[in-house]
Amino acid sequence: MGYKKLLGVLLAVLLALSSAKLYVRQVYDGDTVALSSGEHVRYLGVDAPEIDHKGGPSELMALEAKAANAKLILGKPVRLEFDQERKDRHGRLLAYVFLENGDMVNALLVKQGMARVFLQPPNLKYFSLLLDSQRLAMAEKVGIWQKPVEQPEPYYVGNSNSYRFHRPGCPLGKTISGRHRVRFESSYKASWEGYSPCRQCKP
């Protein structure tokens, strides 16, 4: 085979690969899937209730979130859109995932109350869309927002740099600098502004 012909074949293969559609072949939980390419994708900007894959108790609405995710996306072609960071520390792709009709799965799950906003600066491209979706879910009391928000603390401390909020006595909360410290009268108000709960003190 001549050089030019071989080059043409290679170019055709590359073009075919680049235009090949990606499909979701497996749903792990409410915010993580596996693609037909073999790559794993962690939805960017959101966090669904955790499933304990070791047999322990899962978080409230975790199985419902997985089912909602599967209903939206399993076996369907998708398009990925990236932000400032392409992968997380586990090697998973960080992406906004879009269906063929243009709907973003990340936002749909938040709107259904099956996930909450989980901002990861500097990945803030769709902050407004995700926050609007969460506020709608909170106002309509769907999904994870059905249960009345408890108020065990007199106030909460937010970090405007990380978009996390903490209990007043949380060691991580105590390290927040003055210019990034935000006070919230309730966890509901913190969530309304797009802050997500600290995974250590679990407010």
Number of H/I helices = 6
Largest sheet: 5 strands, mixed, barrel
Major sheet: arrangement of strands: 1-2-3-6-5
Question: How much of the sequence is in beta strands?
Answer: 15-25%
**N- to C-terminal distance:** 67 Å
Whole-number radius of gyration? 20 Å
What is the H-and-E element order? HEEEEHEEHEHEEHEHE
CATH topology of the largest domain: OB fold (Dihydrolipoamide Acetyltransferase, E2P)
Class by SSE composition: alpha+beta
Domain module count: 2
Count the E strands: 11
Fraction of residues in helix:
25-40%
What would you say the CATH architecture of the largest domain is? Beta Barrel
Chain-averaged pLDDT: 90
Give an overview in words.
- By secondary structure, the protein is of the alpha+beta class.
- The protein has two domains: 21-145, Beta Barrel (OB fold (Dihydrolipoamide Acetyltransferase, E2P)); 148-203, DNA Methylphosphotriester Repair Domain (3-Layer(aba) Sandwich).
- The protein is built from six helices and eleven strands.
- The strands form three sheets. The chain has a five-stranded mixed β-barrel with strand order 1-2-3-6-5.
- The protein is globular, with a radius of gyration of 20 Å.
- The chain starts with a helix and ends in a 6-residue tail after the last strand.
- Mean pLDDT is 90; it is low at 11-19.
